[in-house]
Batch of 3 targets.
Target 1
Amino acid sequence: MEDNGNVVRIEDNGTTSLPPVRLPSAHMALLVLLARRRKLRRLEASRQKRLWIHPVIRMKQEKGHFAMLYADLRRCPEKFQEFIQMSTSAFDGLLDLLRPQLTMQQTLLRRCISPEQRLLITLRFLSTGETYSSLHQLFHVGKSTISGIVRTTCELIFQNLRPSVMPTLTPELWLQVAEGFESKASFPNCIGAVDGKHLRVHQPPHSGSKSFNNKKYFSVVLMAVADTKYKFLAIDVGAYDSTGEARVMEASQIKQKMLHDESLPASKTLPGTTQQVPFVMVSDEAYSVTLCQLRPFPRKGLDTRRRVFNYRLSRARRYIECTFGILIKKWKICGSSIQLDVATVDAVVKACCILHNYVLDHDGPDADAEASTASLGTAINWQAAQPDDSGLDVRDIFADYFMTPEGSVPWQTACVSGTA
């Protein structure tokens, strides 16, 4: 059937259909040409954005910090230590330990980054807290490459150095720690000072307000035990909790070790007495009193006996505060806002604690270690937990002992009264 010159097809069911529209060949050729031109433009744009090696990165062998300053810094030990907070001998010892795992395979396409540069980038990041963008401009290494270098090197530092600088504590090592607290802090039967710090971090994804603390920022909790040499005996990183901070210590590995560790030494008599007293750790008022952990008496209604005990306990507890202060002063990434994912934050903080012990062993403490209290960190403001009756009895025993001639120390009364 025809309708005004157009052929109309009538189907068997009574419906009609028109034939497909056929464009002239000139129009078809134009559409093909436009499609091809758009495809060529996309290819050119992708070629301009994607480079095999960026010109800035290609210059790392000639103009990067490692190529231009590394040899000069090694000739100036003081400047080298200022650059990465570590002496050349300590750096060389750490490099020799990590070199097999930091050495990558060379290829015909590009040269790999040397172990020296990988370790230098990581230590510079930990000691200054600089961003990946800043390190990219300094070392002429890609930001994604720096991210992988930092995380991998921090994990290797923790795995390789922990057995030597933070070993598993034995009864002999516990007794050595107790001797240090008795001689330097005049607190017998003390095997460590325990405390925690909030380290500012970027909000973890899908965390809501879980890691939002009462200081109005997101943080990760670092729990630690320190000795009188300002070294970490044990650490626990990665506890995110803001609704009940007291539960962080209760659920930490440090608390479980204190309760169930069979390596803790047995009870020992206090000097000048015949009374058996268990070994304890000292903490602030945020923690609960248990058989192996002591905290100060409440601040209200203190008599002379309780003031003396709080003064003596603070003499022993200041070592963990100084340890945190030295850590944050030397490894400034812990004192800044860490803009990394959760897994990398844990690796970075653990590596800083291990490097803290490593540097103390090789380079010794700083001259101002005593003055480096934890003013750069943020103490955990916890609610007081319920005490244990057995812990209260142990605290009373220490409080009575400090009032005896055998347990008192010079200037004790003057320091408590505030006249010293």
Note: The chain is about 50% helix and 10% strand.
Target 2
Amino acid sequence: MEVWRGLLVLLGLYLMMIGMQGRRSEARLVENFYRSSCPNVQAIVKQAVSTKLSQTPITIPGTLRLFFHDCFIEGCDASIMIHSPNGDAEKDYSDNLSLAGDGFDTVVKAKQAVEAQCPGVVSCADILALAARDVVVLAGGPAFNVELGRRDGLVSKASRVPGNLPEPFFNLKQLNTMFAKHNLSQTDVIALSGAHTLGLSHCSRFANRLYSFSNASAVDPSLDPGYAKQLMSGCPRDVDNLVHLDPQTPDTFDNAYYQNLLAGKGLLTSDEVLFSDSASKPTVIDFAKNPGNFNGAFIAAMRKLGRVGVKTGNQGEIRKDCAAFNNDHGDS
């Protein structure tokens, strides 16, 4: 009997060790990851972001969009930051060429500030995630805690981008399908689209809605007529200017984006479909009427987005320079 008890104890210890190894291999992000190694990291990043914002307002939408584009390709691993002398890194793909340089510079400046106090400790991926939260708050949006512990990726290829970023002409099904690949729900799609309350769009991204919508109507009939005329004034035919995504409060993070959708003032087709499709319309109406519901859904969606494809533990590296892999082992 004593022998069997001993064997059972050993078996229990073995299973416990296997379980611990499994948990280690499936490392999770945690909010206090740098509690001991760089306790002031959040304050350092926030100060760097605030300083950058005082220099240019493009810091806000530029940094937030950079985070989205990074996480959708290779996961949230700062692969979007890599500069390739051959022009074949992730940032070099056509859909990423419009990313604002000020977004990249925000992360670079924040990384330099962090390195000065905590060298070789904090990843560029975590700095980007913190900066994305900070610009939302600085624009008047909700504050929220950011999970940390990401490591920087070792792959950045333009060839990985095609088909993996949402397009301005997408319908709801296409949006849902793409986001679902990253464990993001339809509510997450609608909430994250609310980031279009900030920033600018090139006229070429929606010109078809003004000049060549269909044989029956050159102008998309779902557009408010007055808004359509306003857009035509800012976007003459074949002129690729920039216009605000949110004509109401373009520099403030609020729920005006959803109010605009109700009023026929959704700029991109992928915006307008959120209201025109009966499956998503109730959520849009809710967010338009209840800013608290939108803020809560946006926070939840941002935290889920921040977990997409993360590298943790011994995966990846902690880059010294966000624009370059530490050694030649990186793949760009």
Note: DSSP finds 13 helices and two strands in the chain.
Target 3
Amino acid sequence: MKVGLLLSAAVQVLPSANPVAVGATLTLSLHPATALRGGSWAVGDSLILTWLGEQEAVFPDHSGRASVDVITAALTLTAVTLEDSGVYVVQSSDPPFRANASITVLEPVSNVTFSVNQTDLSELSTVVVTCSASSGSSPSFLWLNGSSEVVANERVALTDENATLSIVGVTRHDRGPFRCFAFNPVSNGTSDFLTFTITYGPDNMVLAVNGNATSFLTGSNLTMLCSAQSSPPALLQWAFRGQLLNSTGPSLKLFDVSQDQSGPYGCLAYNNETNRSSNITKDVVISKSHTSALKQHAFHVWLVPMMPWLGFLLAMLDAGGPL
């Protein structure tokens, strides 16, 4: 009896996989290898098979799926099901022996999809996306933005055990592509990509004249370029000294310029989806020499901020009001 007790304590049942996926083949081996002249395998209170020498008998519940290696006592079970989860016990009376292992069978994850309340968004709006799998035992979820994992922060919430992703105060950088990754210990699956269309702007405007210059000689050719961050692309309109020009688009070209074309040039941007507008102004000085150009530039730098006040004073004079 002491020999049997020592043998049971020293020998372990090692599964080929644990957890194991539904439909897979499971093999339970003894380690170290132990010669048993006969014995039985059971799961819980249900006998699977018995063997003696080279003869084996498989019980009806496992007929056609279970077999034993009569040399090593290893049990092989094919096409496992969720019901095959349990504690597997091998025992023998010659020599006295008993060992066990707990096995978990899991259904693989499949058909990972998401549902979303809307895909056309504007900045500062809120969006909610929920991930699910049509099958799979106890799946876990995580979200990816491109190749980076999405983590919770002051704008991003992960709820329902990470199955639901909520973004509050959407920004233009939340476009994606997002995808949901569902997994359990035996399998994983990924949803299709989700890319949002986000309207924003116009903002962050830039106006450049022949690069970054502001002073030019008469007779020069000028190319003004205007840009704004906007989705959809903003409509761009040019202005000179506060008056709209008959010119639209990202560029304004002036050829053989004269001194009377000096002044503030403006670019106005409008997004017809967000109903927002923005503008930028740059003062351009055109003169016959570089010296006079510098003087005119200094005057314009002083004058441009004063233009609204000058307009107010002129309006007061026209109305006959007191100064």
Note: The two ends are 118 Å apart (CA to CA).
